[in-house]
Structures are given as structure tokens and as C-alpha cells.
Design brief:
Blueprint: E1 14-15, H1 19-27, E2 34-37, E3 40-43, E4 49-52, H2 64-69, H3 75-90, H4 103-109, H5 114-129, H6 138-150, E5 158-161, H7 165-168, H8 171-178, E6 189-195, E7 198-204, E8 209-210, E9 215-217, H9 221-227, E10 247-257, E11 266-269, E12 276-279, H10 280-283, E13 309-316, H11 326-340, E14 349-362, E15 382-384, H12 397-414, H13 430-438
Parallel strand pairs: 3-11, 9-15
Antiparallel strand pairs: 1-5, 2-5, 3-4, 6-7, 7-8, 10-13, 10-14, 11-12, 12-13
Helix pairs in contact: 1-12, 3-5, 4-6
The structure holds flavin-adenine dinucleotide.
Flavin-adenine dinucleotide (FAD) binds at residues 9-10, 12-14, 188-189, 218-220, 223, 250, 252, 357, 360-361, 386-387, 395-400.
């Protein structure tokens, strides 16, 4: 920020079903810095609120009571959503004939109403997968619902850091050093040398070269392509597919108001360009008052120094915003907030900033999984990891951790010291356990 303060590029959240990320947080001492919320808050264009939370019923019925009470959807919308959810659950997350089709195609096949698509499926999936439904592989979209909302009663819980991202990950360095490692910051790698089909060294930006028995490359996929010799990514080479992976943008909008304008910890917006609003002041509040299970109207109003409030807005797959000016985006967000947070109409905006991440994540386009390499490529001592490698997960922190664990497992196995790091998914419960067992391993 021009005033010297630092902000995260964008709010990052985890879900209860992200078991490997939870394991990673416990390894680096970050678990206590994540607060989980059992209730999800939604606001429609008129500002009317709905919530989703689990009832003490076996999956997939645990969401049914709050779904039935969800005010932003009509009975017809709910009936067709329930049918599609049942199709996912009864197939154990593997509905037939979804190979290579988009999520939108599958929703049309499942005869979803326009309101169900716009006010339900799109709302959940565009922010979870950072892509529009027409450009999302149906398999990724279906997995989100199967793992987070259907299979287990805690998979949907939203975990939000109570600290900025830099503080969340400060334990990483210590964990590496404890194991005898060395961490060097702000020194990029410009080239990776390969000779005789083996990794031989990496050249840093200052020209020095580092050598090692093996290398795990954890950089973004487009950066990796520039580092490696061209023969690694040309036709039929191990990383050829990366040239086909596209990226999609996320825009974060940070607004500092002069007074409290929001009581919920976070809010998902329907019928707006803005998708999520995070009440950063409340989320960073160290005391216990904003624990979940408290009705929004009862949540204590949290303020920053001087009595103001800091909100962070997230817009995923924000293609339309990339060419627009920052001021235009801020004005649009203020207009949208006036619909759902009326107190913003009178409040003064003290400060605002927009952070556009143009290549935020890889785009989960239909068929994109075929372009994702495994962590072990054809060079025996060179491994790759990153959310873009083949993990079965979309571009998420969970996918990134899984890729790191898989790369570590591959490297150690090749050295004759096999170990397992990958954590199992949450266990399926209730009827979903039966359906998952019945369909185990069946892929259309
Ligand atoms: C705006 C935004 C919001 C997001 N929100 C969420 C969310 O809410 N939940 C979620 O699960 N995921 C979210 N994601 C996705 C998540 O951040 C990624 O999936 C995850 O960080 C990927 O981890 P990674 O290790 O694969 O790559 P990265 O985190 O991108 O790490 C790659 C690293 O390589 C380094 N690097 C780059 N070039 C070089 C070089 N030449 N030499 C050396 N190092 C280099 C980079 O500095 C970086 O540290 C979000 C992403 C963005 C951009």
C-alpha cells in the first residue's frame, strides 16, 4: 500500500474436506491460526439473508433443513438441485458420461432452472474453482459438491486464517531449518540445467549456480517452462502438456470504512459481481466473540483502531474486471455493498485498493486434467510440484500440499527410503458411505 501498510493479495480460505492442508498446517504450527465456521451466510440483491449449516442428520441429509429454508431459491429450483445432488451422491461422486463435458453442460443435462444455476451452482463453484461454469470440467464441479457438501457432515466448514498470510506461514522456515535445511528468500532461479537426461544444477538470478543430487521444482507452471531447456516441453516431452494449461484471474478489493458496516464474519453475495465479502476486522479479532454458532445479529461489532472496519471482497474468474480501472471497480463494489450492507451508504471510505491477479490459478477447463504432469517426470532426479500438477484437485492450497507430498514421496521412493505423506480424505458417512463403497473405483 502507498502508506506502507501490507495487505494479503486476497483472502484465502480452506474447507473441512482439505485434509492434507490441515496436516500441513499442523506440521508448521499454523493450525491454531485457522478458525472454522459452521454457518455460511448468503445475501441476495435485496440484502435478504439465508444461511447454510449442517443439522445433526446423516449425510447427505445434513444440509437438507437449511437448504429447505434457503430464502433465495424457489421450490422448483430446490427440487431440481436436490435431484442433481442425489445423482452425485448415489453415484458416489461419479455420475456417468461426464468425461470432457463442462459443468454447465452437466447442469443442463440435469434440467436445472436458470435460477438454480445462477443462484446456487454458480455461486459455489465460480469461487471454489476460479472459472465460469461453461469453462469448468464437470468432474471438478461435481467433486466440490461430493467432497465438501455431500459425503461428510464437516467437509463444508469454512476455515479462515486469523492472521495475514505471511504470519500464517512463518512456521515453514523453522520447520525446514529444524530438519537441517536452508531457506533463501528473494533470490529467484533463472535456469535449470539438464544434461544426459538428469538435473545437474540451477542458476540463480545473481548468476551463481547451485548443485544437488535431486531437485523439486515448486514454481508456477508457466515459470517452469521458461526455466527448463526447451527439449523438456517440446512435443512428446514430459512437460509438453503444460503449454495447453490456461489461467484465470481473481480480483481482490480492499475497503477501509470509517465505521462498522458489517456484523457477519463473511458473506456470499447472490446476483452481484462481488462474490464474497470478508469482514477482516472481525476475522482478525483475537477474542472468542466471533466464534460460530452465534447469530449474525448477535455477533459483536468489531472495529479497527479509530472505530473503522476493513472489508475484503473477492471476485473469482474476474475476466470482465481486468480491463476496468481500479476506481471503476471500487465504485462498482461500493454500489453492490449498498444493496447488502446498508450501513455502507452513509459510511466514509477512508482507503481502498484493488489487487488484480491476472494469472491467479490454472483454469479447470474441460479435459485440462490430461495436461497436468505427475510429480515424477521422465528426468530421474527432477520432480515437479505445484497445484497445477496431477493431484485430482483443482488449483487450491489443498492441491498444492498434495502435490508437495506426492513429490516428496516420489523422491524418497526413488532413493530407496519410501514414506507416505498423503493423508486420506474425510471418511464418507451415512448413506454416502454406502454409495461410495458401491461405486468405489468406478469412473465413467
Ligand atoms: C488471489 C488468489 C486467491 C486464492 N484463494 C484461494 C483460497 O481461498 N483457497 C485456496 O485453497 N486456494 C486459493 N488460491 C489458490 C492458491 O493460492 C494456490 O492454489 C496455491 O498457492 C498454489 O501453491 P503452489 O505452491 O502451487 O504455487 P505458488 O503458491 O504460486 O508458489 C510458487 C512459488 O514459486 C515462486 N517463484 C516464482 N518464480 C520463481 C523463480 N524464478 N525462482 C524461484 N521461485 C520462484 C513464487 O514466488 C511462489 O512462492 C488463491 C490464489 C490466488 C492467486
Amino acid at each position: 500500500m502507498p502508506d506502507g501498510s501490507e495487505v494479503d493479495n486476497c483472502q484465502h480460505v480452506t474447507l473441512g474436506c482439505c485434509t492434507n492442508l490441515a496436516d500441513f498446517y499442523s506440521r508448521v504450527g499454523a493450525s491454531a491460526k485457522i478458525r472454522f465456521y459452521d454457518r455460511l451466510y448468503f445475501a441476495d440483491a435485496q440484502g435478504q439473508r439465508s444461511t447454510i449449516e449442517a443439522a445433526p442428520l446423516p449425510p447427505p441429509l445434513h444440509m437438507a433443513p437449511s437448504f429447505l429454508l434457503f430464502r433465495a431459491l424457489k421450490l422448483d429450483d430446490k427440487r431440481c438441485i436436490a435431484n442433481a445432488m442425489l445423482a452425485i451422491a448415489r453415484s458416489g461422486g461419479n455420475p456417468p458420461r461426464i468425461e470432457g463435458i463442462s459443468m454447465l453442460d452437466w447442469l443442463h443435462r440435469m434440467k436445472q432452472t436458470p435460477a438454480a444455476v445462477e443462484r446456487f451452482w454458480r455461486v459455489v463453484l465460480v469461487s471454489a474453482l476460479d472459472e465460469e461454469l461453461a469453462r469448468t470440467d464437470a468432474r471438478y464441479g461435481i467433486e466440490v459438491f461430493w467432497k465438501a457438501f455431500l459425503g461428510n457432515s464437516t467437509g463444508y466448514r469454512v476455515g479462515i486464517p486469523t492472521v495475514p498470510l505471511a504470519d500464517l506461514y512463518e512456521g515453514c522456515r523453522e520447520a525446514i531449518v529444524r530438519q537441517g535445511g536452508d531457506v533463501r528468500l528473494r533470490c529467484g532461479i533463472s535456469k535449470i540445467h539438464v544434461a544426459g537426461n538428469r538435473f545437474t544444477g540451477a542458476v540463480m538470478d545473481d548468476g551463481t549456480e547451485v548443485h544437488a543430487d535431486a531437485c523439486v521444482c515448486a514454481v508456477p507452471h508457466d515459470v517452469l517452462l521458461d526455466m527448463l531447456p526447451p527439449e523438456c516441453s517440446e512435443t512428446n516431452a514430459p512437460l509438453e502438456g503444460l503449454r495447453h494449461l490456461k489461467t484465470s484471474p481473481i480480483t481482490g478489493v480492499h475497503l477501509w470504512y470509517d465505521r462498522p458496516v458489517m456484523t457477519e464474519p463473511f458473506l456470499t453475495l447472490l446476483d452481484h459481481t462481488t462474490q464474497w465479502v470478508f469482514n477482516k476486522t472481525l476475522l482478525y479479532k483475537p477474542d472468542e466473540t466471533n466464534h460460530d454458532g452465534v447469530r449474525p445479529s448477535e455477533v459483536q461489532v468489531a472495529t479497527v483502531e479509530g472505530g473503522g472496519q476493513y472489508l475484503q471482497l473477492v471476485i473469482s474468474a474476474s475476466y470482465d474486471l481486468i480491463p476496468r480501472s481500479r476506481q471503476e471497480i471500487i465504485e462498482m463494489c461500493r454500489r453492490e455493498l449498498a444493496d447488502v450492507l446498508p450501513l455502507t451508504r452513509e459510511a466514509q471510505l477512508r482507503k481502498a485498493t484493488v489487487i488484480k491477479e491476472v494469472n491467479a490459478t490454472f483454469s479447470p477447463e474441460p479435459g485440462s486434467d490430461q495436461w497436468r504432469p505427475s510429480q515424477r517426470i521422465d528426468l530421474p532426479n527432477l520432480y515437479v510440484c505445484g497445484d497445477w500438477t496431477r493431484t485430482g484437485w483443482p488449483a487450491t492450497m489443498e492441491g498444492a500440499v498434495r502435490s508437495g507430498y506426492l513429490a516428496a514421496e516420489a523422491l524418497l521412493a526413488d532413493r530407496g527410503e519410501p514414506r507416505t505423506f498423503l493423508q486420506p480424505d474425510l471418511p464418507f458417512e451415512g448413506l454416502c458411505k454406502f454409495w461410495a463403497g458401491r461405486n468405489n473405483g468406478v469412473r465413467s
